[in-house]
């Protein structure tokens, strides 16, 4: 019996991107034991996943290296798939005695540990990150092109989210629009002043019955929140400080009618929950629609055009011009398109 470990100890969105491979490995090997190794907080993304048997975690501290190795040894894994080159995880898999280990690229530590490799060919041609993850599953015999993301909420969690929102004065029949204004530096993003203009235009120019705008980014500044408060409207609710952990955020996103935000973890969570979303993407390869775009068919991806990239971004694209490359009116137009498809 195959005993397969999937290792993804980086960021929230990156863990969301391994959910298709979990499903497709289960389809290919129904009797396999399938486990994941993630950071403790990103484990929340995988809760209730019916295709997953074991969820292991690594807090990435120096003193817990051998504890993780010991945990891995218990399961006698036959295969270990490392989706992102990570020296710590490569050595942990080696010392855990996993015979067939597959990584990405040709890092020195991968060569030293005799790890097999899947090439991304310098991202040419460019694919979605979820598809790159599936390349490692294809290496062990999985045959699929289905990269549909998925996160599972049970009925109890949905009820908990309803109760939480009701306590904030948000009812079931309200149109719940989440605007996530932060990235914690993981992707190019608008300034808060531009998000403020967007919110004002949504309130003034769009007629959305029972609209509630939920703000979820923890890094919002006091200046930004004060300016919103000064609008004197009860349509805007800041829940960034009252959502205690990632799973609670996932529950709230699961109740949203529309999610708007940059290409970062919460956007990919909305995608995996099948929510209508509008994603703001840079033009450069690692953040563009092709590599990081929303996959579900209820959503709209907006990307800085090549023309705007050449005009507003630095030549090496390290400084992104997304502030000027995607306009507020483009987002408003996308909102209208999505709302026109919804039933009130």
Structural description of this entry:
The chain has 344 residues and is α/β, with parallel strands linked by helices. It has 2 domains: 3-139, 3-Layer(aba) Sandwich (Rossmann fold), CATH 3.40.50; 155-341, Rossmann fold, CATH 3.40.50.2000. The protein has 15 helices and 12 strands. The strands form 2 sheets. Strands 3-2-1-4-5-6 form a 6-stranded parallel sheet, sandwiched between helices. α3 packs across α4 and α8 (192-205) crosses α15. It is globular. The termini are far apart.
In short:
The protein has 344 residues and is of the alpha/beta class.
Largest sheet: 6 strands, parallel
Task: Identify low-pLDDT runs.
Answer: none
Multimeric state of these chains? single chain
* CATH superfamily (homologous) name of the largest domain: Glycogen Phosphorylase B
Structure class: alpha/beta
List the secondary-structure elements in sequence, H or E.
EHHEEHEHEHEHHEHEHEHEHEHEHHH
Count of extended strands: 12
In total, how many domains does the architecture comprise? 2
The CATH topology of the largest domain: Rossmann fold
Q: Which CATH architecture of the largest domain?
A: 3-Layer(aba) Sandwich
Search tags:
6-stranded parallel sheet; alpha/beta; Rossmann fold; 15 helices; 344 residues; 12 strands
